[in-house]
Amino acid sequence: MRRTLNVIRLQLINRQTFIWVPLIILGSAVVISVLIYAMIPVDTPKYGGGGQAPLWYFFAIGMGAMTYTFPFSQAMSVTRRDFFLGTLATAVLGSALLGLVFLLGGAIELATNGYGVNGYVFHLPWLWEAGPAGAFIVFFTLALFLFMLGFTGATIYKSWGPLVLTIVGVGLALVLLALVFLVTRLELWLQVGRAIGDLGALGLALWGLVIVAVLSAVSFFAFRRVIP
Predict the structure, then answer these.
(1) Which of 21, 23, 148, 203 has the greatest number of C-beta atoms within 10 Å?
(2) What are phi and psi of 119, to 5 degrees?
(3) C-alpha–C-alpha distance, residues 40 and 199, integer Å
């Protein structure tokens, strides 16, 4: 546990990466979104996707956690297992912090009638239909998923090179294309839409956590072959 905590401290030496830069991105997205809302001459609620901006940044953080921090950790005699667990714990903490920030933003929007212009960045109805706890899980899962996606991609790249990473990416694209073709050929889009609607944002987020677990297993397997 102590060694894992040391890795968390190592990842957080530069707090700009996990804390300040995501908050700056989020704050900028909110300001820009509110300015745009103020220029729209309607009284109905206005919703936008500006809040997702820092979530995509977590994809870059995941790549950087492998490509930049891992070689430095090896110079400090940190084991691969401890580095992996510590990095994953840091990602969980960062995602939880971002989830709490989203909840705070949603509360501010409700209290101020959408910043006085009836515009919403955080409190999107479909994401909040399961309440604050459900919204937290959605935002937490999105951030953690994008982090693990970047981390897993960087791990595959460092383990087997760009050729294997490209093959994996193309293979996943072909699998998705095959699924789309199958659903279209069998005329199942109506059923798929109903299933997604029944799951809701919370149900999809819980399935997202399953995907995060799969990505974690893949990255841990590939991590043993990484060359610092």
Answers:
(1) 148
(2) -120, 140
(3) 33
**Has residue 30 got a pLDDT over 80?**
yes
Distance CA 181, CA 204 (A): 22
Virtual torsion, Cα 171, 145, 214, 177, nearest 10 deg? -30
Element (H, E) at 119: strand 119-120
Structure tokens at 47: 């919703």
List the structure tokens of 194.
Answer: 């109903």
The tens digit of pLDDT for each residue in 45-104 reads: 999 888 888 888 889 888 888 877 887 777 777 788 888 888 899 899 989 988 999 999
Phi, psi of 171 (to 5 degrees): -60, -45
Residue 143's closest CA among 10, 53, 64? 53
Cα separation, 48 vs 167, in Å, equals: 35
Nearest to 222 by CA among 172, 166, 167, 152: 152
pLDDT tens string 149-208:
999 999 999 888 899 999 999 999 999 999 999 999 988 899 989 998 888 888 999 999
Q: Reduced to 3 states, what is the DSSP secondary structure of residue 226?
A: coil
Residues 6 or more apart whose Cβ sits within 8 Å of residue 89: 4, 7, 8
| Vertex 137: Cα angle to 131 and 142 (nearest 5) | 130
For the CA atoms of the chain, what is the radius of gyration? 20
Residues contacting residue 35 through CB under 8 Å, at least 6 positions apart:
none
